[in-house]
Amino acid sequence: MKILVPVKRVIDYNVKPRVKADQSGVDLANVKMSMNPFDEIAVEEAVRLKEAGTAAEIVVVSIGEQKAQETLRTGLAMGADRGILVVSENMPEPLAVAKILAKIAEEESPDLVILGKQAIDDDSNQVGQMLAALLGWAQGTFASKVEVAGDKVNVTREVDGGLETLALSTPAIITTDLRLNEPRYASLPNIMKAKKKPIDEKTPADYGVDTAPRLEVVKVTEPPKRQAGEIVPDVDTLVAKLKELGAVA
């Protein structure tokens, strides 16, 4: 089994984003970047399948600027075998990303594509579903458990009513949820080995995909600061305050 794992370079989840002074976007200058946490979970799941003898090869893919190679090296240090970097100075929108990944999937012929359910920078939660639609493959989204059983992949996912288990025929798309696993830290020897693993560089033009943006960001602003609460002495005062604020009639 071959597994394809798309990964994205985003602002580290421990960093508080800052909006640019002109409100044109988020300031990325001198900001720590790392792999999208949901994609880390996807890489970890692929590596576990390989360690269990289910998968033979893991290919990590990233789309973005040249610095995204660092993100690929992280995936390689975790246990992936090789990488593909699609260099694009502007970050393509979800549909363009899905189209590029679809072309890569057609070339690589993976049995599974495992990716994070969403990226923490835009929270779109679109690429996995779009990719499944473009390829016509089965999909299991928000996976909290993945088990390979013969020629089927059983995916347990969280739904409003509890848990739902799907039996997917391969090739298939899986998007990962937080409860699927706990990603490992790459060891120093594996980090050194990752530097020697191959990374192929491509461009969107190599796959015939137009990445010109279809959406225009008009303005980015920070959320309003939360106002301080107030302690009231009794229920009557609480009700009076809520009426004053228009929260109750």
UniProtKB/TrEMBL annotation:
Transmembrane residue ranges: none
InterPro entries assigned: ET-Flavoprotein_bsu_CS, ETF_a/b_N, ETF_b, ETF_beta_N
Lineage top rank: taxon: Bacteria
Residues covered by the Electron transfer flavoprotein alpha/beta-subunit N-terminal domain: 23-211
Keywords: Electron transport, Transport
Family: Belongs to the ETF beta-subunit/FixA family.
Organism: Pacificimonas pallii
Name the UniProt record assigns to this protein: Electron transfer flavoprotein subunit beta
PROSITE patterns recorded: ETF_BETA
UniProt keyword DNA-binding present: no
Keyword flag Electron transport: yes
PANTHER family: ELECTRON TRANSFER FLAVOPROTEIN BETA-SUBUNIT, ELECTRON TRANSFER FLAVOPROTEIN SUBUNIT BETA
